[in-house]
From TrEMBL, chains A, B:
A Pfam family per the record: Pyridox_ox_2
Entry-linked InterPro entries: Pyridox_Oxase-rel (IPR024747), Split_barrel_FMN-bd (IPR012349)
SUPFAM superfamilies: FMN-binding split barrel (SSF50475)
Organism: Phytohabitans aurantiacus
Protein's name in the database: Pyridoxamine 5'-phosphate oxidase
Length: 140, 140
């Protein structure tokens, strides 16, 4: 059951991200690649997460410049080898505006009990994704 | 349905990785965090994948020194907020031994049709993971 990759448009990527409750934030922590599953919402084209990123990221995500991360979500059927994957690459910054922060804290409940979590907005500068497609169906 | 994280042992992490067919390789590509879903097998404690990593990673993964990547897999129920996540961090190197390469190519069929893919061995130096646990059940 070998598949081909059909590229998604930016709009399709954003729709799929908005329609799925969780993904994985990918960042560099003390020069090592790091990844953490989190739940998210999409608001005005940005991915909003709540996390304790910790380590070296905690300070950079809190700076005005922010920190570049990737945010990935997928729904792939391991038996049928069908589904999709989307990656949003962009700048992550702490949400500091009290009204925004309060609104996101209402809308987005972390699945894991956390002390002192942060609300983080990831503004995608690059949105790419694909579907795994049956080449026979694609050729029809 | 808030959960707590129960840390997994190294052996539990490896067993869960070996029992799941796919995960995500996380690396740095031209100074940006990158992530790609792939299928894998576990052989003698190492994660084996086939991919065209491309870009700046293609040259470093082919060097004797290899390149440090993270490999992540999870099975999280987005409704029940239960499941697990495992991250293996370690050195990725091309499998160049012809017998090993041929054996892995038999055992591990890529889900996506690829020209000229590579077989890559990731030797975990760090294996961490957790289960999302109902705190009420955990306290029993």
């Amino acid at each position: 059951m070998s598949r081909v990759l059909a590229e998604l448009t930016v709009d399709e990527c954003l729709t799929l991200l908005a329609g799925t409750p969780m993904g994985r934030v990918v960042f560099t922590d003390r020069a090592l690649p790091a990844i953490r599953p989190v739940n998210h919402i999409v608001d005005a084209g940005a991915v909003i997460i709540r996390s304790r990123l910790g380590g070296s990221v905690a300070s950079t995500v809190g700076s005005a410049r922010g920190v570049v991360v990737a945010y990935q979500a997928d729904q792939i059927d391991p038996h049928e080898h069908t589904g999709w994957s989307v990656v949003a690459t962009g700048t992550a910054r702490l949400v500091t505006d009290p009204a925004d922060k309060a609104r996101y804290e209402r809308l987005l409940r972390p699945w894991v009990s956390m002390d002192a979590d942060c609300v983080i907005r990831i503004e995608p500068q690059l949105l790419t994704g694909y579907r795994l497609v049956d080449p026979a169906a694609a050729a029809r």
